[in-house]
Inverse folding.
């Protein structure tokens, strides 16, 4: 069950997207020179705290499910959802599935929200689905599906937002280049 807890927060790391997350294999981390501490990096060695109304383990199905007001934190990254289920394959974590008003907050990366999300452990990919909204400061992007590859760092936001006068869904973004508070007087 300890492995299940360790991988529950991996979803939160992936959905935090750019700048706040650095998911790499332990060997790759050891091979790199020590990085300077930065506010933009979450501490992958920090304690993982999970709280929920209930927890149910299904030993035959090899799953663990946290239900009701689930909050998962590690360092300064926080995942909130109605339910978080962890599945295993051959004793190793396989997928972390968050459902119901999924919110991932990271001071470095902003906030990502969606209806549900999946962290697929082996390929190290995170997918957030359903009315996906990414916010950082005043900047906002919207789409239907966000996919993040934690190995390559690439992220794709797919269309699906329907707006007035638009026949299909498209990705939308609003950016404020001078939102740093500077005055142009």
């Amino acid at each position: 069950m300890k492995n299940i807890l360790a991988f529950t927060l991996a979803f939160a790391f992936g959905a935090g997207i750019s700048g706040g997350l650095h998911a790499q294999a332990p060997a790759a981390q050891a091979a790199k020179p020590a990085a300077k501490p930065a506010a933009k990096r979450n501490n992958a060695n920090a304690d993982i705290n999970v709280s929920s109304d209930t927890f149910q383990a299904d030993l035959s199905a090899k799953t663990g499910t946290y239900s009701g007001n689930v909050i998962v934190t590690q360092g300064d990254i926080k995942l909130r959802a109605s339910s978080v289920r962890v599945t295993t394959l051959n004793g190793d974590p396989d997928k972390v599935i968050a459902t119901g008003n999924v919110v991932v907050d990271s001071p470095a990366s902003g906030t990502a929200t969606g209806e549900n999300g999946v962290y697929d452990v082996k390929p190290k990919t995170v997918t957030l689905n359903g009315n996906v909204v990414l916010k950082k400061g005043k900047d906002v992007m919207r789409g239907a599906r966000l996919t993040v590859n934690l190995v390559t760092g690439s992220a794709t936001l797919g269309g699906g937002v329907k707006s007035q006068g638009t026949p299909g869904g498209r990705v939308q973004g609003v950016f404020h280049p001078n939102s740093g508070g500077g005055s142009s007087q």
Notes: The two ends are 59 Å apart (CA to CA). The CA atoms of residues 34 and 169 lie 44 Å apart. Residues 1-40, 181-185 have pLDDT under 50 and may be disordered. The chain is about 10% helix and 50% strand.
